[in-house]
Amino acid sequence: MAGVDVIIEEKKDDSIDRQKICPFLLRVFVSSSGQHHKVTEYNKGNTPTNELQIYTWKDATLHELTQLVKEVNPEARRKGTKFSFALVYPDTRYPIYRMREIGSTTTGIKGSEDLKTLGNFRITLGDYMDIAITPPDTWNANRGKNYSNNFGNRNRPF
């Protein structure tokens, strides 16, 4: 009897057939200052100016979105660049938008939030994504001037 190859595929709970399901438009607003846009910038029919339009599916991960933003933003490709994601959605009781941080990724470093999907955050049509990008030299500078990576004096005997 010939050998039998067994192929095991890990299937995500919320995965969809991207060949059969039409993607939706996700309007993404990117800030390179390391801070999210103010939620008031989304009120009264306004949006921030730096918009990316991404066609995607609800099973898209934060890592996938990071990769798409890096394609159009060369500065964000540096290892250690942080991407902070926030969902911007309309309030159901008032004519304003709300913002909720949903996760972060870092270029070149695998993280626990990389595989979270848009479906995990119950994104709906009409919601926006706000992404704050922080270059590695900026967030390293915030550690403090007296911070040292060498953990003490190298000349000290052990």
Automatic annotation (TrEMBL):
InterPro entries: SAP18 (IPR010516), SAP18_sf (IPR042534). Pfam families: SAP18. The keyword Transcription applies. One of its GO terms (cellular component) is nucleus. GO terms for molecular function: transcription corepressor activity. Keywords: Repressor, Transcription, Transcription regulation. The keyword Transcription regulation applies. Belongs to the SAP18 family. This is 18 kDa Sin3-associated polypeptide. It comes from Sitophilus oryzae. The gene is LOC115881958.
